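ok, trying the design again with the full structure, not the truncated one.
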């Protein structure tokens, strides 16, 4: 690193710092992405501590090998493919500045890199015995991960070379477990909890299956909720031929035919059971932005039900993103502009409140992260993080109660009727 005020391309430090401040001051509904030089990073991040951060909505390649990502409400989990990369982060308000410094700049679209795990397994046997595909699920699949999110993933494999099915399964399982261990280890790098619990048969099932095994399971044994869960499936790492084969299968399951009356009944019963059983004991439903009336769960279940209903005949609604699906449903005339806007407002504010709770409390887990604070001190901190002016803390409550009430009315009409 040098001490000059301009880099080799003639960009001044002041210009770079303006870009950094633009990221830090990003609005609550947008994402800014800039690349800055080493001098700007030194000035912007002086005194910052190394942090375990797995976050970015968008990543851009920088010739300098430095990538800066601005994230506000929704952040995409990233996996660093080289141990030479260093993570530094600082949070300001509802924004997060994440800086990756290393020899290798990441390309847009890379997510989980299994190179290390595959290399280790190949060295062990002297040849590759399995090709492995990782598919993001849940919020990770929808590119809607928040600060405290884990990464829901399912794995698929097939034999490589002359390896038998048993050998391929053994190596694929080893690769998957190695990826999970590498990403979950606590180091000066990022640490991410990778959860394979959404795989067929849950935690009692094999860590990875072949496409044929997935087809057999979903064709014979899968519940309706498992078909619904596949609406969020998005491939993130693996060879293209395997990716294409698996996604053709997944599309045939989630969009192959309209939801039946029996499936619709099952979905509604499951949602009703969740409303009565999953809310934490003692929590005020109207203040729970995830599971309460008009919260994240209400919006997402409505959207997913409409995707199951219209997806087979309307390709534009086939997306793993909640907001993208809402907009597609609106633009294709499946729901009204007013209903879509109401649901989007509630979902976005709930997401901001959850992110704000993380930033103001310093906690990455716990039931309070999903609850609009009642304590005035906590409410003031949250309001300030969300951009509300001093003396207007009560506006957060009023805005949420209004958004949630309207969203619940839309949900009751579109989901239950």
């Amino acid at each position: 690193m040098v001490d000059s005020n301009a880099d080799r391309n003639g960009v001044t430090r002041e210009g770079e710092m303006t870009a950094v401040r633009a990221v830090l001051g990003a609005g609550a509904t947008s994402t800014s992405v800039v690349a800055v030089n080493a001098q700007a990073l030194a000035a912007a991040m002086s005194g910052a501590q190394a942090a375990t951060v797995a976050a970015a909505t968008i990543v851009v390649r920088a010739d300098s090998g430095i990538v800066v990502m601005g994230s506000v409400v929704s952040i995409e989990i990233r996996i660093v493919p080289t141990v030479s990369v260093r993570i530094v982060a600082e949070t300001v308000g509802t924004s997060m500045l994440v800086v990756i410094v290393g020899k290798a700049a990441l390309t847009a679209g890379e997510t989980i890199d299994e190179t290390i795990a595959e290399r280790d397994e190949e060295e062990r046997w002297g040849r590759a015995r399995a090709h492995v595909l990782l598919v993001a699920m849940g919020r990770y699949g929808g590119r809607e991960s928040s600060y405290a999110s884990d990464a829901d993933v399912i794995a698929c494999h097939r034999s490589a070379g002359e390896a038998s099915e048993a050998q391929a399964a053994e190596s694929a399982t080893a690769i998957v477990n190695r990826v999970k261990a590498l990403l979950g280890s606590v180091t000066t790098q990022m640490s991410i909890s990778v959860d394979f619990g959404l795989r067929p048969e849950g935690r009692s099932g094999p860590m990875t299956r072949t496409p044929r095994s997935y087809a057999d399971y979903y064709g014979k044994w899968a519940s309706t909720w498992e078909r619904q869960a596949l609406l969020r499936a998005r491939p993130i790492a693996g060879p293209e031929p395997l990716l294409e084969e698996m996604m053709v299968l997944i599309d045939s399951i989630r969009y192959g035919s309209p939801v039946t009356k029996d499936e619709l009944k099952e979905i509604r019963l499951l949602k009703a059971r969740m409303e009565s059983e999953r809310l934490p004991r003692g929590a005020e439903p109207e203040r729970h932005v995830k599971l309460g009336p008009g919260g994240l769960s209400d919006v997402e279940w409505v959207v997913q039900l409409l995707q199951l209903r219209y997806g087979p005949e309307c390709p534009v609604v086939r997306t793993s993103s909640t907001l993208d699906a809402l907009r597609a449903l609106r633009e294709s005339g499946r729901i009204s502009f007013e209903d879509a806007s109401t649901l989007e407002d509630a979902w976005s504010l709930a997401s901001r409140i959850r992110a704000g709770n993380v930033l103001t409390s310093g906690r990455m887990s716990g039931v309070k992260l999903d609850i609009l604070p009642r304590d005035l001190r906590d409410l003031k901190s949250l309001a300030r993080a969300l951009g509300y002016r001093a003396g207007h803390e009560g506006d957060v409550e009023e805005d949420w109660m209004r958004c949630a009430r309207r969203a619940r009315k839309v949900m009751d009409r579109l989901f239950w009727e």
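Keeping the full-length input from now on. Strands lie at 33-34, 66-71, 86-92, 95-101, 130-136, 151-159, 194-195, 208-209, 234-237.
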